[in-house]
Design brief:
disordered N terminus; disordered C terminus; Growth Hormone, Chain: A; MFS transporter; mainly alpha; transmembrane transporter activity; MFS_trans_sf
Length: about 425
């Protein structure tokens, strides 16, 4: 029985458009972790509180999530290439504007615009890679998750290196790199056949959330992402390192994430069902967050929990994404938009909430809260396993979708 893996040896043999989008993905995902090493510097130089600086994540992720509800509608009408180009152009513009800002409130606002561009790009990029990659959906998703891991890894490293010059440096750097990504998309992504586009209704992602499989995965991902972003966004403060030190730590975190995305996750899904992998690895992440809370006063101990967290997050990111793309007959762009919109909200909530919990209670409290959230994600997967049979076995298993709401959601893709 096959559980959704393909031979990773075929991953490197891809069309040029896959590599163009993949390269731009790496740069786009750099935006998630880019501000990590400079959070303490921004707080210091702009006279901002930790909670205010954490809002740099919140505005970015909140707008990314909300905008993703509409990206499939946009891309189905103007085409994937133009959508990707608009998204990249917005990121260039708003990252440049953030670099030129003089206070934290303005940067928070420009990060929101950055999130809009990110939503247009990320949602469309995954569907583009899946459609163009050789080796099937699993190989495409592994490539996408590897780009995510590398982007998150390189983002803090670039942020740390440029942050030693000025907190503005990482924002200028992102603008320059995204401009290169824009050129790559223009040059390497071929023209589309407009006749092949199937317009998606504006309500499609909202109606897709009524699908039990998508709803189950989205609920689990909200709470999982809280744990994810507690580890990513809050940890720079208790670590107490310089910008370059933080950049190196989270570079290691992101490399670990990329390695397990590409090699470990496919190995596990060859042996186990996707839901089994999730219910094993999610509790391990919860334990890692508890360990982070216990070792918060030990810099080496906290660094180890960050690296171990990266290893676990790489597996979870890939398996969650594979599950979403395979769980229904919905168009992949619709499924991706609905799922991503919800999961990014968890990431938007976590950073400022973590900072406030540390102030209201004690420094370890954000990690314990993150661990509890990941436990809730585990329970959601266990309770919803009956809706995820297709994610485990694929369409060939002959799963009969009898739920009326699920059938209605699946039919959205055929609506004009």
């Amino acid at each position: 029985m096959e559980h959704g893996s393909s031979d990773t040896s075929s991953i490197l043999r891809q069309p040029k458009q896959v590599w163009a989008v993949g390269f731009a993905c790496v740069i786009a995902f750099m935006g998630i972790g880019l501000v990590d090493p400079i959070l303490p510097a921004i707080a210091s130089e702009l006279d901002a509180t930790p909670t205010q600086t954490e809002l740099l994540f919140t505005s970015y992720l909140l707008i990314t999530g909300l905008a993703m509800l509409f990206t499939s509608w946009v891309s189905s009408r103007i085409g994937a290439k133009l959508t990707l180009m608009i998204g990249l152009a917005l990121i260039v513009a708003f990252s440049l504007a953030a670099a030129l800002s003089g206070n934290v409130e303005t940067i928070i606002g420009f990060r929101a615009g950055w999130g809009l561009g990110n939503a247009l790009f990320i949602s469309t990029a995954l569907a583009t890679i899946v459609g163009a990659a050789s080796g099937g959906t699993a190989s495409a998703i592994i490539l996408y998750e590897a780009a995510l891991g590398l982007g998150i890894a390189v983002g803090p490293l670039v942020g740390g290196l440029l942050g030693t010059i000025s907190w503005r440096g990482p924002f200028f750097g992102t603008a320059a790199l995204m401009a290169i990504g824009f050129i790559a998309i223009v040059a390497l992504l071929g023209r589309e056949d407009a006749v092949e586009r199937v317009p998606v209704t504006l309500s499609a992602p909202f109606r897709a959330m009524r699908n039990p499989a998508i709803a189950t995965l989205a609920i689990a991902a909200v709470f999982y992402n809280i744990g994810f972003f507690v580890l990513l966004a809050y940890t720079p403060f208790p670590l107490g390192m310089t910008a370059i030190g933080l950049g190196l730590v989270f570079f290691g975190w992101g490399v670990s994430l990329a390695i397990t995305s590409v090699w470990v996750a496919p190995l596990l899904t060859r042996v186990f069902r996707r839901t089994t992998v999730l219910t094993i690895v999610l509790p391990l992440l919860a334990l890692d967050l508890v360990a982070a809370g216990l070792f918060i006063t030990s810099q080496p101990g906290l660094v180890i929990t960050v690296i171990v967290g990266g290893l676990l997050l790489g597996v979870l990111n890939t398996v969650f994404t594979e599950s979403v793309m395979e769980a229904t007959d919905l168009p992949r762009s619709v499924a991706s938009s609905a799922y991503s919109a919800v999961r990014f909200l968890g990431g938007a909530i976590a950073p400022p909430l973590a900072a406030e919990l540390a102030v209201l209670f004690f420094p370890s409290m954000p990690y314990y809260f993150g661990a509890a959230s990941v436990v809730v994600a585990t329970v959601a997967i266990i309770v919803g396993t009956r809706f995820l049979r297709r994610a485990n076995f694929g369409a060939e298993a002959g799963v009969v979708l009898t739920d009326a709401e699920e059938a209605e959601a699946i039919g959205i893709g055929d609506a004009a």
